[in-house]
Amino acid sequence: MLNRLDEMLNFHTQALRVRDQRQQVLASNIANADTPHYKARDLDFKTALQGALQGTQTGGTALATTAPGHLAGKAGGSDAGLLYRTPAQGSVDGNTVDVDAERAAFAENAIQYEFNLTRLNQQIKGLLAAIQG
Question: Which of 2, 54, 86, 105 has the most CB atoms less than 10 A away?
């Protein structure tokens, strides 16, 4: 029974995680709009979501252990799945951030995040209504 509930909620849960990751990348691009030689990055949402749903998405680079008692872990802040954005127009300082395009992508991603959150809430409310009768 719990497996079916988990499967039902899994899609929107994973979509929220990927949308959150993309929002952070877009915010980083906007924050570095004036940084010389900064290369704008983006996340291919479809590929990242498919990887998250299949459980093949890597959470980071494996950390090296130097002693037998060390725990294997994953490094945070991985660049796995991030792509470089193709600049629409070159700049003198080598920065590829187009602030207008980044803001538009940021706003669109925020709307999609809100949609996934609303759908997840609707599913949970439907479950509660079914349980309460």
Answer: 105
> Quick check: is 86 in a domain?
no
**pLDDT for 56-86, tens place per residue?**
654 444 567 788 887 776 544 556 678 998 8
Q: Within the chain, how many helices (H) and strands (E) appear?
A: 3, 2
Nearest partner of 11 among 57, 44, 53, 48, judged by Cα: 53
Ramachandran quadrant class, 57 (left: phi over 0; alpha: psi -120 to 50; beta: rest): beta
Q: For residue 11, what are the domain limits?
A: 1-56+96-133
pLDDT top residue among 74 and 128: 128
Q: Which pLDDT value is given to residue 23?
A: 96
What pTM was estimated for this model as a whole? 0.76
Q: Please, what is the Cα angle at 57 between 51 and 62, to 5 degrees?
A: 170
Classify residue 131: in a domain, yes or no. Answer: yes
How many structural domains does the chain have?
Answer: 1
Alpha-carbon distance 77 to 120, whole Å? 26
Query: Domain for residue 81, yes or no?
Result: no
Q: Is residue 117 in some structural domain?
A: yes
